[in-house]
Write a structure and sequence with these properties.
This protein is 26% helix and 19% strand. It is built from 17 helices and 23 strands. It has helices at 163-174, 189-192, 216-224, 239-242, 299-307, 323-333, 364-373, 376-384, 396-399, 404-408, 417-426, 444-455, 469-476, 494-501, 515-526, 530-546, 580-587; strands at 4-6, 62-66, 93-95, 115-117, 120-126, 131-136, 198-203, 206-210, 254-260, 264-269, 276-277, 280-284, 290-294, 313-314, 338-344, 348-352, 433-440, 459-466, 484-488, 550-554, 558-564, 567-568, 589-590. Helix 7 packs antiparallel against helix 11. 51% of the residues are buried.
Length: 594
């Protein structure tokens, strides 16, 4: 008897975090992800990254960047870093570019030990007093929009940033110190930030974060949380004005000068930008005069525009061209006429919520049957063009997990459609059931392959293509319509995992009635060190694999980033990761000055 199950599959994205490489370990030095020019194709994760470009930086020129997600109408500083197009804004801290270790900047979320001050000049931790004292730079100003011909929209008038602005930026997210919490946020800040009790402004350049029971884990959360710095003037705008791109303003290297919904964003350099290039300390940033982000859904159009020189960077998250198109790019341009970087991608899984009755995936044996029905190796090789396929747990690289649990249960992850049919019949689903898959157009190829395999064992996959991420998320969060989520089984930071899989997260449903999982989730939230946190995550990983909470649909592979040969400063860091977009776009240059 068929049973209807509405299922959301987003095989390469969870909360906007998928396929952006492997984060650094919380216990040790991060492993370098796969990254090399195409002429130096990597064979494993220990491949050497390319040396920094030998050519000297050049001022002037422009870059057109293919943006891999949706360019949506949202400009509030509360967006965090889930909109990497917001290069007009900055945080207190950012990845330490001066370390000159590009292997540490390929991951989406590295821990605080790899961060340095951005707007912050220094910080001091006092665990006994439960305080973090932050000193900010005295040369940071809000952008002068008048130089871009938008003086009428200049709410800050290029004034200096103060410690009061820093405090306000956090207070408005948490609703503390008498500041009303903003409702214009897409980020669960109470989960990302530590439990900040209050923020004391000592003087114009110093503020003190009071954090009860301060630990290393909470310090990590404070430093790595992507809080954009703004000022109270922003909340004096009307809702209509906050939704108007003309008012978008921050301290970043580029000023937003044009916005076309789901199409493009244009920027011009900020003349009063304060920062210098850590690798070329005498050089004031940014190098480029203008930057343009474009959104293109047709992969053949992406290929054509890159080959013709209309696109300079293809570097966001998932591959937006298929394998044959990428090979056509290489063959047409020829070696030396482009730069290709390769990064290890995260696997994808089918995840289920148990909030509706008669949910087949609430049965572990059904989940195993679905795993046997899907030829993960064939799908991964077809999509990612790799020779070997690897499956991992949620936090494999982050916690140094060696996949031992998965290896011990290897027979439960094999492709065996006959066994899948038998297990479905034994579970009471001899006639199969129906599921619906909501996906963006860029993911259709993998979805169609999954559908073919599931159909062979009687599971009908109805594919629904949505216009953008927002529409897909609307289905994902509609618990009355859906009882399952699609997601990423890749390695991402524990704080983001808590958003999804912990009892107060949106994907918790698949872990219902597992007291061991709940207990470990409680422990990981009270861990005092990154080492302790990582050890607990290792145990959660083992449960996740043992119980088949994620049915693998595609394994680890590669994502490919392409740069025009005119782009200088390309040294291996991953453009789309965390705040790397903001950092890199200020430090890349056009070798031709055009």
């Amino acid at each position: 008897m068929k049973k209807l199950l509405a299922l959301l599959l987003a095989a390469t994205m969870l909360l906007g975090l998928a396929a952006c490489g492997s984060p650094g370990s919380a216990e040790s030095e991060p492993e370098p992800a796969m990254s090399a020019p195409v002429s130096e194709a990597p064979t494993d994760n220990s491949s050497s990254l390319p040396a920094p470009a030998s050519d000297e930086p050049v001022y002037g020129g422009n870059a057109t960047v293919l943006y891999g997600d949706d360019l949506i109408q949202y400009f509030d500083p509360a967006m965090g870093d889930n909109r990497t197009y917001s290069i007009w804004m900055e945080n207190l801290f950012a990845y330490d570019w001066g370390a000159n270790k590009p292997e540490n900047a390929v991951s989406m979320y590295t821990n605080y030990t790899y961060y340095d001050g951005q707007i912050a000049e220094s910080y001091e931790v006092d665990y006994d007093a439960e305080t973090v004292t932050v000193k900010i730079r005295d040369d940071v100003c809000f952008q002068d929009k008048s130089v871009a011909g938008m003086g009428d929209y200049d709410i800050f008038h290029a004034r200096k940033v103060t410690a009061s602005d820093v405090a306000y930026s956090y207070q408005r997210l948490l609703g503390i110190d008498g500041v009303t919490a903003t409702t214009n946020t897409e980020m669960p800040w109470e989960m990302l930030l530590p439990a900040i009790e209050s923020i004391e402004v000592v003087d114009d350049l110093t503020c003190v974060f009071h954090i009860p029971a301060l630990t290393e884990v909470q310090l990590d959360a404070l430093i790595t949380a992507p809080v954009n710095i703004t000022g109270p003037e922003w909340d004096e705008l009307t809702a209509e004005q906050q939704n108007d791109w003309h008012y978008a303003v921050g301290t970043g290297p580029y000023i937003l000068t044009d916005f076309q919904l789901n199409a493009s964003m244009s920027f011009v350099k900020s003349e009063n930008y304060y920062d210098y290039d850590e690798r070329n300390p005498e050089n004031k940033l940014p190098y480029l005069d203008t930057v343009k982000f474009v959104e293109i859904s047709d992969s053949s159009n992406i290929l054509t525009q890159f080959i013709s020189g209309q696109l300079d960077i293809i570097s966001f998250g998932n591959d937006l061209m298929n394998v044959s198109e990428m090979q056509q790019l290489r063959d047409t341009l020829g070696e030396g006429n482009y730069i290709e970087m390769r990064y290890e991608s995260t696997p994808g899984t089918i995840l289920s919520h148990y909030n509706l009755e008669n949910n087949p995936m609430s049965d572990r044996n059904v989940r195993i049957a679905m795993q046997h029905a899907i030829d993960v190796e064939t799908i991964t090789k077809a999509i990612n063009a790799v020779e070997e396929v690897e499956l991992r747990g949620m936090w494999a690289s982050t916690v140094g997990w060696d996949s031992g649990t998965l290896a011990a249960k290897a027979d439960e992850f094999t492709y065996d459609p006959d066994l899948a049919r038998q297990m479905l019949a034994d579970a009471g689903y001899a006639d199969g059931f129906e599921i619906t898959y909501y996906t963006k157009n860029s993911g259709v190829q993998a979805v169609q392959m999954v559908a073919q395999y599931l159909n062979q064992v009687g599971i009908k996959l109805n594919i629904e293509v949505v216009a953008d991420t927002s529409e897909r998320n609307a289905h994902m969060r509609n618990s009355e319509e859906l009882c399952a989520f699609g997601g990423n089984a890749g390695e991402f930071a524990l704080k983001f995992a808590s958003m999804a899989y912990f009892p107060d997260g949106p994907d918790y449903g698949m872990f219902v009635d597992n007291p061991e999982w709940d207990e470990l989730c409680a422990k990981i939230k009270t861990a005092t060190s990154l080492e302790e946190q990582a050890e607990i995550a290792r145990k959660l990983d083992e449960i996740w694999v043992t119980e088949h909470y994620g049915v693998f649909s595609i394994g680890c592979g590669e994502t490919h980033n392409f740069y025009s040969s005119k782009m200088g400063g390309v040294t291996g860091e991953q453009f789309c990761c965390n705040n790397n977009t903001r950092i890199m776009i200020a430090r890349l240059w056009s070798t031709t000055g055009e």
